[in-house]
Predict the 3D structure of the following.
Amino acid sequence: MEPPAQPSPGPTRPPAPPPPPQLAVTLLVAAAGALETISFLGLDRVFAGVMTSNLALLGMAIGQQRAVSATAAALALAGFAGGAAGAAWFTRHSEICEEHWHPRVVSCLVATTSVLVAIAAVWAAFDGAPHGITRSLLQFAAAVAMGIESTAMVAAGHAAAPTTYMTGTLATYIVTSVGSHRRDFWIPARFGALIVGAAISAVLLKSAPEWAAVPPVVLMLCALTAVRSRRSRL
C-alpha cells in the first residue's frame, strides 16, 4: 500500500521588511525640541523648524510694525529654506529604501550635527547670552540645521517620519486611532521626546545657560549612533 501523498506546501510569504529606525527618529525629534527651546527662549522668539508658526509670527510683526520680530522671522524662514534647498539638491538622486536610510540622508544628518556643534560652541563662547549680529547668525544657523534635517526625512521616504513639525503626525495618529485597536507606540514616544528635549534645554537655559545648546548635539549624535548600529544588524 502506497503512503498517502503529503500536501504540497503553500506559497511562502516574503519576510516582512524591518521597521524603520524608530529610535533614531525619536532621538531626532528630541534634538529638534531642544533646539526649538534655544531658538524661541534664548534667541529671538521664533522657531528654528516650525515654519507655519514663523509665517504667522512674521504676519503679526508686520501688522504691529515690529521690525526686530519681523527680521527674526524672516531670518528663520530664509535659513530653513536655504538648508532645505541644499539638502534637496544633495539627496535628489537618492533611492528610497524601506529598510535603512540612504547614505546621502545620513550625510545630511551629519551636516545638521556639524551646524549644531558650531552653534553650541558660539553659544558657550558668549556664556549663553549672544547679542547683536551673533544672535542673528545663530538664529539663521539653527533654521538651516532644521531645514537640512526636515528634507533628509522627506528623502528617506516611509523609512522615516517628520521630526521638526508634529502637527500632521498628531492629526494622523488621532484619525488612525479612532475605531482601531492597534496603537503605534513610537508616535506618542516622539511626542514625549519632543517635550523632554525642550524641557532639558529650558532647564539649562535657567540654571547653566552656557550649556543649553549642548543637548541638541548630544541627541543628534545618539540618533546617528542608533542609525549606524541598526544598519550593521541588517
User: Anything to note?
Assistant: Confidence is low (pLDDT under 50) at residues 14-18. Helices lie at 22-44, 51-63, 67-90, 103-125, 132-155, 167-177, 186-207, 214-233. DSSP finds eight helices and no strands in the chain. Residues 94 and 102 are 6 Å apart (CA to CA).
